[in-house]
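Structure tokens please, single chain.
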Amino acid sequence: MGYVTEKSYSLILLIVMCTSTVSAACDCSKEDELYSIRGIASGLVLDASKPDQIQIQRYTGVPAQLWRFERGTHAGLFRIVNHATGTALSYKDYKDGWYILTVKKASKQEFMININNTITNVETTWNMDVLDNKLRPGTLVGLYVTNGNRAQLFKLQEKYTYTT
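Here you go.
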């Protein structure tokens, strides 16, 4: 009989929590909708103009600032795909205690959109976070341990329908 490690236990909790919280946090049931992901504290949106590093920027509506949500491997989990690059949000380079977000690598990273306005990476169990709580345009976005900081709060908005 196997043992449940701390990391796998966290993943199990995330999946269980996800099924009860995601419907209130994100109506991502339609895969043909585009969203901007806006930092609540800064008012700025995720931008993939530099695919090797996701930044927050003022909203202009360019494709690099628009995202669609593809269903993941379990209920309530999503791949967040950038409209400009066509690749999923991922992470790289563990540095100074956090991971840099990117869309340069085409991977199957899955995220959970939480009712408390956080976006959690399922593999790491860490939240999306604006680096060092610097809430100005051009600041990098990564993954960091859940800490209750306002730099970890995001909302989805400004739906756009697109056709392929």
